[in-house]
Amino acid sequence: MIKHCYIHIPFCKTICSYCDFCKQFYDSQKVKEYLKNLREEIERDYQGEEMDTIYIGGGTPTCLSLEELKELMDILSLIHKSHNTEITIEGNVETISKEKLVLFKQYGINRISLGIESINENHLRFLERNHTKEQIQKTIQMIRKEGFHNLNLDLIYAIPGETIEEVQEDLDFLLSLQPEHISTYSLMIEDHTKLKIQGVKPIAEETDEEMYSLITSYLKEKGYIHYEISNFSKKGYESKHNIGYWKNEEYYGFGCGASSYKDSIRKTNTRSLTNYPKGNLLEREEVTESDKIEYEILLNLRLLEGISLSDFEEKYQMPLKDLYNYQQLVEQGLLIEEENHLRVPEEKIYVSNEIIVKLLQSKKEI
Ligand code: SF4
User: Fold this and answer.
1) Measured distance CA(43)–CA(101) in Å, rounded
2) pTM
3) Which atom of ligand 1 is closest in space to residue 12's alpha carbon?
4) Closest Cα partner for 73 from 34, 108, 49?
5) What is the span of the domain harbouring residue 333?
6) How many angstroms separate the alpha carbon of residue 27 from the centre of ligand 1?
7) pLDDT tens for each residue of 260-283
8) Does 19 contact ligand 1 (Cβ within 6 A)?
């Protein structure tokens, strides 16, 4: 049974130089039309299940006007939730107001995720983000005052020209805000972004690794749990929504560019606002049993706790060791098998992709 739902709002007031998400400039006429189409999609495809998590991402959902957000909240009311459903909205500090926060509270939103990315003025300019340190502090004070106790802040590192000391400064600033959750992203120069077109090259691999190592050790020292490759939280504040993805659970995805996984089909809606009402898809994949197992491994091994061997056996009616010859990787110290879990050792999590590939290659002939 589906327990997770993602809703995409593809509008932003400004476009960041590194962005390859499904987004476009805010335009009130387009928002109006989009919300109408979003409502229709949910009315058509949602089957009434009670959700454990709902995630409103973007784009910048908070850049919608108060009236537009009221309409979005009304659409959200179509989806059943319980008193402890985790409901997240993404936003940026420039577009949050007291009135919007009051509205979110009224509709049961209980988690806010803000793209802070950096506080270094040069790097913010490079990323084309417009906020200041003071704005961040003021907005977070307002968020706390309105009674939100589950706050995620995003950090971007490995920005060309960035030094390890600057990453440390960003971390210190983030920590001073005492968020319950921190998501970190190594800057990727993705195709079709302004940075790619400008020919910007990524930072050296060793510097990236050094920054990653600083981030993980420093956040752990400050009491955060490193629970997924790039995610850290205070105890009990792990993102339930993202854990659903990493545990390979099914989910709805509504909106332009949104992905869903339902009835063994993974699909992604078109990124075109014009084609979205026609129900066009960007991709569609029928997930076979063997694909499901590969996803199960790939996704679960992103989590520091790894994959539960008993859950795997219950789900697929076969022990993982009967399908993959991973003992050799355990002997080489690339995987650890203990307490009913198979996991990547924390000191090797930076190269977990390579380890996962080796694990998948150890598949037995049955
Ligand atoms: S705010 Fe987010 S979605 Fe919008 S342009 Fe920047 S990175 Fe992309």
Assistant:
1) 26
2) 0.97
3) 4
4) 108
5) 290-366
6) 15
7) 999 999 999 999 999 999 999 999
8) yes
